[in-house]
């Protein structure tokens, strides 16, 4: 089951930290998308439940790796830029909230 985010995404920021690696990030997300399609196919073909669960775990791990990478980029770029500008409080709060969501998931 997918969790639905209740918060509106914040998009009124400058270039994001991941912008330089956007092609690689999109490639990873496309591979994860393929994993999810594979899961659908496995269920459609009545694949053994433990094999499906194993693939779900792999897809979840792949998404978590993407999330951690984005968080690292946020800290290295957005938070650092805000600190240089004199007030990183909002960016640190965003990072803390994101970490809390990742830990809960």
Task: Please provide a written account of the structure.
Keywords: Copper. Belongs to the CsoR family. GO terms for molecular function: DNA binding; metal ion binding. The chain is mainly α. It has one domain: Up-down Bundle (Methane Monooxygenase Hydroxylase, Chain G, domain 1). The protein is 72% helix and 0% strand. The chain is built from three helices and no strands. Helix 1 runs antiparallel to helix 2 and helix 2 packs antiparallel against helix 3. The N terminus is likely disordered.
SSE layout:
Layout: H1 22-44, H2 49-85, H3 89-104
Helix pairs in contact: 1-2, 2-3
CATH level 3 topology:
Methane Monooxygenase Hydroxylase, Chain G, domain 1
**Overall tally of domains:** 1
CATH superfamily (homologous) name:
Metal-sensitive repressor, helix protomer
Secondary-structure-based class equals mainly alpha
Q: Please tell me how large the radius of gyration is.
A: 17 Å
Which term fits the overall shape? elongated
Characteristic terms for this protein:
105 residues, elongated, 0% strand, disordered N terminus, DNA-binding FrmR family transcriptional regulator, Metal_Tscrpt_repr_sf, Methane Monooxygenase Hydroxylase, Chain G, domain 1, mainly alpha, 3 helices
């Amino acid at each position: 089951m997918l969790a639905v985010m209740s918060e509106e995404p914040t998009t009124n920021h400058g270039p994001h930290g991941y912008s330089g690696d956007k092609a690689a990030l999109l490639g990873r997300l496309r591979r994860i998308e393929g994993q999810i399609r594979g899961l659908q196919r496995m269920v459609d073909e009545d694949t053994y439940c433990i094999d499906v669960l194993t693939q779900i775990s792999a897809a979840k791990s792949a998404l978590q790796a993407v999330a951690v990478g984005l968080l690292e980029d946020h800290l290295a770029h957005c938070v650092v830029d805000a600190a240089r500008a004199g007030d990183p409080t909002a960016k640190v709060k965003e990072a803390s909230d994101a970490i809390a969501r990742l830990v809960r998931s």
